[in-house]
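Field reference: sequence -> structure
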Amino acid sequence: MFNNDFPAFNVNPFNSFLMGGFECADHQNTFGERVDLYQTSGHEIYLEEDYDHLRQLDIKTVREGIRWSVVETKPYQYDWSEVERLIEISQNKNIQIIWDICHFGYPDDLTPLHPMFARRFSSLCQAFILKYRSLVPEGNLIVTPINEVSFISWLGGDVKGTSPYCVGHGWEVKYALMKAYIEGIEMMKAVDTSVRIMVTEPLISIVSNNQADAFSILSAEEKHFEQFQVHDILSGRICPELGGKPEYLDIIGVNFYYNNQWINETHEFLPWAEVPPHPQYRPLHELLESVFLRYGRPFVISETSHPGEDRAKWIRSITAECLSVLKAGLPLLGCCFYPVVDRPDWDDLSDWHHSGIWDIFDTVTLKRVPDSESVAELKEFKRKLNSILVAN
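Structure field:
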């Protein structure tokens, strides 16, 4: 049963079920080079056009990031110029933004293990709320403090893929990020109690290929359930000294991709498109149901896409999964295709993924080229979604 502990929150705050996300990572990549995919993808140049394209598909809610490394180039000094432009244009075009304060990336002088990291981050969070409310005093304000803590703590804490470039310190990085996350929420709510929090974490499934061995099964399950550490810290179930509270676990965003399921022993990805399906591949609706049973909170598919030729097929699969969840009466509030515009690889900026609804083939002009099959599938998604809403 839907958890009614926070009745004021039990209303869908999103302007549209279908959503689009724009790549906004600004971290240091595996080579120590700063990336800025907001610029590299041309979203900075084509911002108004990108929003117009989305509105043509009746997408009125988007995910954007403020890019911490750009906003705070000196401690506690903030340059909000591009954020102000995002706010102004989105308001003019009636586009709702879900804001990432930290997608991937920190200022040059910070890592999650820096003793001032949490204070700097929480101050940034409060400053953002004050800036936003000075321009938009009323209406829903939905914030993701830090995107994919589980992933970024592994990338930077265990495999040296980004700052702080550690091995074997994933838990320490995760703990530090969650300390900042919770302090950031507290500072935001100190000036605006109405702020909504959407946690966005990977939704994965890890299984054992040795189903006859109890130890192997338990080991895989332990790894599988580690994905919920962020949620449990945020809600105060574990690490209560960090100050997590049940109401901080407000809207659960799940980031789900084609390679989010694998075998524990070999790290081999389970194929998603086999017919009949792989016996250990779990359909998305089943994974979503397990999240709802665990927390009883409304949820959003906050990221999903597929690179290359199978992207339209992936959208068709996601459509079927969303419809199944909605028909079951579960509180799925939206589905965000991310990235909605093509983007390059963080570690090789010459390698464009072609996973968006709009491609970029000319890396000089960065002109958007719609993928006709993906556009058609999104329109079909919208048609089927409307038929369900009418029936209900």
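Note: The mean pLDDT is 95.
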